[in-house]
Amino acid sequence: MSAANVQKLCESTREKLKSVIGKMELFLNEHALPQLVTEEDEETLQFYQGFLSDLRHLLVFSEMSYEKLGVALRRATFDEAFAQRALYNVYHFGVNNFFYPKNESYSEDGRYAYTGQDAIRFRKKPVRPARDIIMDITKVYEELRDDLSYYENDYLTEKRMQNQV
Questions:
Q1: d(CA 38, CA 32)
Q2: Residue 141 in contact with residue 23, Cβ under 8 Å?
Q3: Distance of alpha carbon 63 from its chain centroid, rounded?
Q4: Which of 1-10, 12-21, 98-107 shows the highest mean pLDDT?
Q5: What b/e readout covers 61-74, taking b as 16+ CB neighbours within 10 angstroms?
Q6: Do 48 and 130 touch, CB atoms closer than 8 A?
Q7: Is the pLDDT of residue 45 over 90?
Q8: If both were cysteines, with which of 52, 68, 107, 126 could 130 make a disulfide (CB 3.0 to 4.6 Å apart)?
Q9: pLDDT per residue over 59-84, tens digit each?
Q10: What is the C-alpha to C-alpha distance for residues 93 and 63, in angstroms, rounded to an integer?
Q11: 27 closest CA partner among 39, 17, 36, 18
């Protein structure tokens, strides 16, 4: 991948992260556990505790990646290796944490991915705002996953091969 392509990928990735960061911040600033828990049972409480925890982690990972990409793009001389590492981190810490949240309040069901239906399935039926935030940012993380698929395996394989030579 050429330096120019990496730079363009950094720019587009940064813009996509900016949009989801804004949406997650707005949601987290406006919603807390008492607003989300409508049923007073332990399972519901644990579901939303995990949901909010996963969303906060995703926000932090996304913000850190946004900043690193900004650093890569602002340098006087574009450092391709630094930028590649930042893109790798977006994939492994942002995209993966979106699609595989630690508390598993939702998951992606690949059977629905190509049917035009929502591929995200929640473990427990969420209140509307919780569902909406995930559905709202899903498309961006799907785009990031597609854009950055090179960083899933190929990037590390290439690095390992360079070190062996």
A1: 12
A2: no
A3: 10
A4: 12-21
A5: bbbbbbebbeebee
A6: yes
A7: yes
A8: 126
A9: 999 999 999 999 999 999 999 999 99
A10: 11
A11: 36
